[in-house]
Write a structure and sequence with these properties.
single chain; alpha+beta; OB fold (Dihydrolipoamide Acetyltransferase, E2P); nine-stranded mixed sheet
């Protein structure tokens, strides 16, 4: 195992932060797997999973069973970890800019566009290497000017050439679910099975350049532009894994999720061990554009009537909004069938609050598909 340190730009006099990456395996031409946790620094289940993964990987490495390189970045966002206000951690947005830490990564497709066409040929494997070389050149040319820009660039330099990228997050109150590209679903489905994901939401481009998408979208974009002339493989299998809720931090869940990821790496041939049988898929993948938000039109005490992970039918009640001043109870129902995969953690609703989301099977939304 190698430990590497990646310094960030110092934002103020007397301060300095680094990103630390742990590299397991020979890194001798086999697959490269990149796994990071808690890019939203207040989403901590993944950090504990990364800790458990490191222990597993150390054992496999010692036994000579790693057939590729696995890079673990347990703390990719030291900026957000240090944002605290009156005892509350503010890890989703950078307080200086108000920008979501998981947005605005470099668009790799746009960066390499001026230089890649002349390098493509009739061999898919050679095209993969050419694209990755172009990515490296383009990223090396970037000059960050802020600590946040330095953080984004450091993470992309660590991950641009990975065969698989897993970005471990969680929601406010949720069941385990995934976000990924429909072009690569067949390679992601085993992970959904091993993790017992209750929803898998597919989008080619949800808008905003979140971390996982910038890895897989580049290859889809190249295939759309050049696929009729040059074979373009899926050079980056990238997934956002939402590890349930912010409060779901426990040794038991961390070990369960770490083992699910280990099983996936075995299935991909990165770890030399018998591949466990794949469990059934809990629910079929659905388009992210079909995710139905449940929004309250008024304010009051929020009382949920449906649990996360439940499959609800159209018309089924999701929550009540209780107004203790007027004695009015307003029931919020869903208009589509699907898994209630996430809901808000607050129990007091303001008018217009999105209180829950249902993974519907029919796409109907366009434009930006992500929450703030």
């Amino acid at each position: 195992m190698q430990t590497k340190t990646h310094p960030l730009i110092s934002p103020t006099l007397g301060t300095h932060r680094d990103i630390t990456s742990f590299h397991y395996g020979p890194g001798n031409g086999g697959q490269k797997i990149y796994i990071q946790s808690s890019l939203h620094a207040d989403e901590l289940p993944g950090m504990l999973v990364a800790w458990r993964l490191r222990r597993h990987l150390a054992e496999f490495e010692k036994a000579g069973k790693l057939r590729g390189e696995v890079v673990i970045v347990p703390v990719p966002n030291p900026i957000g970890l240090n944002q605290n206000l009156h005892g509350n951690q503010l890890g989703r947005f950078e307080t200086n800019s108000g920008v979501n830490f998981n947005r605005n990564f470099y668009d790799l497709a746009a960066l390499i566009a001026p230089r890649i066409e002349a390098r493509l040929g009739k061999d898919a494997a050679a095209n993969k290497l050419a694209v990755r070389a172009a990515m490296k050149e383009a990223l090396d040319e970037q000059t960050p000017h802020t600590e946040l820009e330095a953080l984004r660039l450091a993470l992309q330099k660590l991950s641009y050439d990975a065969d698989v990228v897993l970005d471990l997050h969680c929601d406010l109150d949720a069941t385990l679910h995934l976000y990924t590209n429909p072009d690569i679903w067949n390679e992601v489905e085993p992970l959904a099975r091993y993790l017992d994901a209750q929803a898998s939401l597919l989008a080619l481009n949800s808008v905003g350049n979140p971390f996982d998408e910038i890895h897989s979208f580049c290859w889809s974009d190249l295939r759309q532009k050049y696929g009729e002339r040059f074979p373009i493989p899926n050079g980056g299998i990238s997934v956002t894994v939402e590890l349930r809720s912010q409060h779901d931090v426990s040794y038991e869940l961390a070990e369960k999720d770490a083992q699910g990821i280990v099983n996936y790496l075995i299935q991909r041939g990165v770890i030399d061990a018998p591949a466990p049988a794949q469990p059934p898929l809990a629910h079929a993948a659905t388009p992210l554009a079909g995710a139905k938000p449940i929004v309250t039109p008024l304010s009051g005490v929020l009382v949920f009537r449906a649990k996360v992970g439940a499959f609800v039918e159209a018309g089924e009640p999701i929550a009540d909004v209780v107004d203790p001043l007027t004695d009015t109870v307003t029931t919020l129902a869903c208009t589509t069938a699907g898994v209630l995969y996430a809901r808000h953690i607050t129990r007091f609703a303001t008018a217009g609050l999105e209180v829950a989301r249902i993974a519907g099977a029919k796409a109907y939304r366009t434009g930006s598909l992500l929450s703030a």
